[in-house]
Amino acid sequence: MTSIHRAVLRITCPDRAGIVSEVSGLLFRLGLNIHHADQHLDAEANLFFQRIEFPVPEDWERVSAELKKALDGMGMHSSLRRLSERLRVGVLISKHPHCGLDILDRHRTGELHCDVPVVISNHADLGPEISRRGYTFVHEAIAGNKAEQEQRILARLAEERVDLVILARYMQILTGNFVAAYPNQVINIHHSFLPAFAGAEPYRQAFRKGVKLVGATSHYVTEQLDEGPIIAQGVTRVSHRDTVKDMERKGRDLERVVLAEAVRCHLEDRIIAYGHKTVVFE
Amino acid sequence: MTSIHRAVLRITCPDRAGIVSEVSGLLFRLGLNIHHADQHLDAEANLFFQRIEFPVPEDWERVSAELKKALDGMGMHSSLRRLSERLRVGVLISKHPHCGLDILDRHRTGELHCDVPVVISNHADLGPEISRRGYTFVHEAIAGNKAEQEQRILARLAEERVDLVILARYMQILTGNFVAAYPNQVINIHHSFLPAFAGAEPYRQAFRKGVKLVGATSHYVTEQLDEGPIIAQGVTRVSHRDTVKDMERKGRDLERVVLAEAVRCHLEDRIIAYGHKTVVFE
Amino acid sequence: MTSIHRAVLRITCPDRAGIVSEVSGLLFRLGLNIHHADQHLDAEANLFFQRIEFPVPEDWERVSAELKKALDGMGMHSSLRRLSERLRVGVLISKHPHCGLDILDRHRTGELHCDVPVVISNHADLGPEISRRGYTFVHEAIAGNKAEQEQRILARLAEERVDLVILARYMQILTGNFVAAYPNQVINIHHSFLPAFAGAEPYRQAFRKGVKLVGATSHYVTEQLDEGPIIAQGVTRVSHRDTVKDMERKGRDLERVVLAEAVRCHLEDRIIAYGHKTVVFE
Amino acid sequence: MTSIHRAVLRITCPDRAGIVSEVSGLLFRLGLNIHHADQHLDAEANLFFQRIEFPVPEDWERVSAELKKALDGMGMHSSLRRLSERLRVGVLISKHPHCGLDILDRHRTGELHCDVPVVISNHADLGPEISRRGYTFVHEAIAGNKAEQEQRILARLAEERVDLVILARYMQILTGNFVAAYPNQVINIHHSFLPAFAGAEPYRQAFRKGVKLVGATSHYVTEQLDEGPIIAQGVTRVSHRDTVKDMERKGRDLERVVLAEAVRCHLEDRIIAYGHKTVVFE
To answer: What ipTM goes with this model?
Structure first.
């Protein structure tokens, strides 16, 4: 069965006896057949997490309403979505093209199931490249007033009813205002193995430190710079032979894969963020 | 909760609607609280697999009997075990010490929860090393009659009530007779990334081929040499600089880790073998 | 110093005392300053390999002629090239776009220093995508006569004075005739960890076998299918959860990186192929 | 040729034209045949590094003296050693056995060519284990006076003429005094991917941060805690399922391999430390 005929239920609640039985019993009574289920217990936090995939029933409206109502009645925090309801994604870029173009390529070839109504940049450079691929490109220059530029971006994202913002090497720090508008809905790619080398020029920091591996980290954006819940990480070998430029080259391949992995997991409702950590059901 | 107070249930059955609900409902009625559950559906084979961990109830004898009976009634193939019932492991070695000693080290330091009543070798060389660590070492020389030697090994393993046989670089091919006595209960480590370089001298084969990665594969032993269900695999980088000796050195580290991973998963009932594949619930 | 002002000398010869001294003495007398040197001795084959990078001297024509003449006199097989003399690359593709487009992206963004005068396919599908990026696309359909189609491709590559042919998931087997025209000048990407799963549908083979890692291999093409000298390899983790489609998705990321690595090394004269192996000076 | 008949020359000097030619010419005139050479240029620091392996000549005393004298005359910082002159290694441990025992195992099986005259611990626990393997174990308790304990350790290391100190999970911070006595001759294994999670309890830090990879770092010890030149690093995947205990288990395998790699490179004179970085000629 292709993903568009599946629905995904995510549950978070304090742990107690019988949860799995209650939830699976509920689904069974509603005639829903669990195709895939994954669960996690954070014993320290006493929190239970579950992700269930099931085929979309014919009378979705009625069944999903009943399901949601019952889960609410059981005191569970839940989300429910048919994967055919594609999320709307806004991509923010600056001058480095590799991550942004890669996301668009994966979108066009059907690897990422979503809509991409708008690509926004604080620089005009990548406009032709983006437009040529058939995407709407918007140039929002900072021009001395960053707060206003961010407001214009937020307005455009709202207008496009964007559900997920991807910072594909967008080189500006977002304000708390922006982050609050998209809680756990802004994914950034940082070009280091966080928490090492947060902040500016991580490859230069890595070169100076003489590390033997460089990394990339995708994470949800919070008000604390480079401190949000980590979704995916990767590393690749470097040696004394590698210049900063070599690290950048190797890093580009990492960044693409690590960002795409995070975006795919988000689009398929595979991530539950809580506190400053994530559960990622692969 | 430490592992010794947990029980593990594994289920395999043809897929149909409602299995998850039925099983979790059954556990709930028996007062068992699911601490961890993992499941898998092989859509091609129409087979459903599940592994459930729950705390051992006080009246284990009664509850486990009821559980087993109910599952049998539901037509499910199942296994049920308290992790405190340690498996009994027989280790077979030849002359290479690294894998065998590593398994014993992990046993002594408590990483592998099992009993190791006997270590058997077709060579006497490693006897002192094994004995010094406090393990029973048995030398069963082939001495021109391999069939008889294998019979003596089987007799000893039976006498020690061994549940799992580990071939820790045991350099003899087992007969179908031996394999039939321990179905999916003999774990081998092959020093290549199978199915590449099956058979003898895989590092030499890899060197001749000029590959850029060498691997190791742990698998259950079947009658077909190096063809049994794969449990775990790993690889490490090599280059034109690496001689066969270098590959052997790098390979030893891989072999240890890949074998130990397979053994740990087996001891914790994390593996379900079916056909010539495995489900490994990590 | 950027790569375009560097020259690369590669030497292969039977090993004997004093080679390094002779070669470095020769370069010194010609006023050439070694910026980077790497060497390798295959003791079994008694072959010595060396790669030397040095800044291009002002009177290149004279100096390079003298250098080449002296090396010939010393009985050495050598190649000499200024990296500013960009190789001319022909890309062959079929229907899978990811490897071909990735090579073109890396070319356009300056990561791969070469010219790409032509992209040829046995299918028309990717034409618009290629043309839109500003590359010349040629559709050479097989149309029942594969020998003639291959002749037309060879003619076009010759016309474009192509130095390197990249098979970016080109799904046709080349004849010995084609391979002989470009010895160690055709790079293929095979979507498995060779020598495992040579031939058709490697991901399906991997799925059936139940391996826990899937790989990709870039290699020079010889008359033996999937048997040519290996240049680079990579692997990525899979589990029982991964369908053939999931393996294909994960594999695409591997294939891109492993192919690009091989092409970059070839373009920078980092590879020396001998027998059915390679020396890759990273 | 086995390693014991080889000599290794390491050179560090400011970069200038003709160095490679001068050095290789010098070796040639002394009748020394370069078997392996590797070099590196740090363009920022304008420093040239070279490592050369050659067979030990019959009249070693005379030839090595001439070589050293000539190199001194050329203003080069150099080291020269026959690999048959085994380094003397002191191993410092605390309560975690895995790294220390692993180093001893690699020593006994001939993987690490060195002498290990003494193993010292601030705890008595591992004494029997070490002694049983035939090594000299010394218990130096801190007993309220850490400075005196360190003095006793230094005295013992001096008495044993130790060339290299390995901190195999030795859980005490060394004073500047100790470090000054063994500049770039103390190798530590830190159980994180430095510079992330320096200091105490790195796996707990990693767990709290929710990283998706945990690492290990071997480095020379300097006065700055966990800040010395990095020699080798490795990482392994973790997920939300992994507890701190799981990370510790996975980490032990990493720590062993990463520490052993650093020690092997040091014993074979493959490392040149400069500033707070290393060149590692593999």
So the answer is: 0.94
